Amino acid sequence: MKAKAGFVLRNVVDEYILMPTGDMIGEFNGTVLLNDVSAFVWENLQNPVSREDLLTAILEEFEVEKAVASADLDALLTTLKEYGVIEDD
Questions:
Q1: What is the reported pTM?
Q2: Are 58 and 69 in contact (CB under 8 A)?
């Protein structure tokens, strides 16, 4: 999976905001607020990556139990797919 083109991540006053750009502005009405881990995942989605590789990267970067990270990652990926900002590669 990978991030869809037409979105940019910005850090504004210590908050991560995923914003549409170009043609996506008309298709995607709004922005998405991300926490530190979600922003980290988004950055890793700039290139095609598997769920397993994302989970490994999270576990290496953050102090979190594998079961918690796995469940949270699945929830995030589901939400990002529902928003239409990531696609299967």
A1: 0.91
A2: yes
pLDDT band at residue 29 using 50, 70 and 90 as cut-offs:
confident
Q: Residue written as tokens 């529902």? A: 82
> To 5 degrees, how large is the angle CA 54–CA 78–CA 15?
70
Taking the mean position of all CA atoms in its chain, how far away is CA 89? 15
Q: What is the DSSP string of the chain?
A: -EEPSSEEEEEETTEEEEEE-TTHHHHS-S-EEE-HHHHHHHHHTTS---HHHHHHHHHHHS---HHHHHHHHHHHHHHHHHHT-EE--
